[in-house]
């Protein structure tokens, strides 16, 4: 099967392109918002192929995976030489994000499109978005297992937030000063340097650096389930997370602590940093839970089943 999709979320796409299909990735010379092409910091197989606008206009495409309103509103049709997703080419819309705004106004951009399937990556997102008459499906994340790498040698907490300054309260950036008084915190992510953090190294190096920290801290208030949280659990890190959106469903008892009380998070972080044996024990439980729920085989099987339905 030949699948057209934009490189929007690197970690999620890394899992998807491990499947048995050919993945066509729009690319432009500047590699920006409209055509990023292949990843530069993740390892992708040769089946992930870059496609110029000229090539895409006449390409044989079995299905389009839409991920942003601008793709639905005309970008995909333009690249496909006038072929409309859902009408001329089978299409699936993948929603990576939790909705923003008032609860009564959380209508999805792909609402009332029975010619599409709207796929959510968490049950929380499926619950909160209003899809109208568009059929929905939940396919939870899958992870290319980085392996158990935990050493916990540094008595510090690791946090991963991309664009932490811009996203502010959404990602809990404002909570970091309150939590930083508990134990030293190392912030990783795009634009992290502007807050005294560490810019994202390549994924394998990031995983090694995270695993050296004693605990993974997840202060996210309102986003979809961060893949960095799942990756940290795969690495064998114990987790301290704000109990919002999908996080309470993902971190089981014994694998860490989830709470909406910042003081509880402070105490849990302090306890884990002070007790390496407890941290290692909870990290092993976190890895076991993450592997059971977010295995790559299950993720790809779910997607193969949906793609077969969409193109039948």
Describe it.
By secondary structure, the chain is α/β, with parallel strands linked by helices. The chain folds into 2 domains: 2-142 and 296-310, 3-Layer(aba) Sandwich (Rossmann fold), CATH 3.40.50; 154-293, Rossmann fold (3-Layer(aba) Sandwich). 34% of the residues lie in helices and 18% in strands. It is built from 12 helices and 12 strands. The strands form 2 sheets. The protein has a 7-stranded parallel sheet with strand order 3-2-1-4-5-6-7. Strands 9-8-10-11-12 form a 5-stranded parallel sheet, with helices on both faces. Helix 8 (227-235) crosses helix 11 (276-293). It is globular and about 60 Å long. The mean pLDDT is 95.
